[in-house]
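Chain particulars:
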Amino acid sequence: YGGSSTFCCFSLAMAEQCLRGEELRARHQAALLKLRKKALREKARAELAWLGHQKRCLENLQDSKGASAMAAKQRKILTELKQEQAEIQHLQNIYRAAHQERKLLLKQQREILMMRHSTAQLQEKLHNLAG
């Protein structure tokens, strides 16, 4: 019985170690996504400022066609920014769900270990009573 219990403890320790590794990778991934989100906002802000400047220059030159083209480019940049932000949010949700799944698996493995341990104890008691 002891060998089986030792193996279960070992596999639980391995699962916990894997979970810690996964959590570390998840924290790194979250940090990278946060940086990506910030970089996207900064890039969009800079592009919008540049296009806004160009649009004002064209308006001053009374080039309505060019100014409307700049406005269209600004809308395109905002649309792309929203799409990228939605993609990042989707990835964050996926990573969050995967983390919850890993925690649930570890909890289930602990419960199985506890059941095996109590079963082994009962079998040992029965063996001792029979002997």
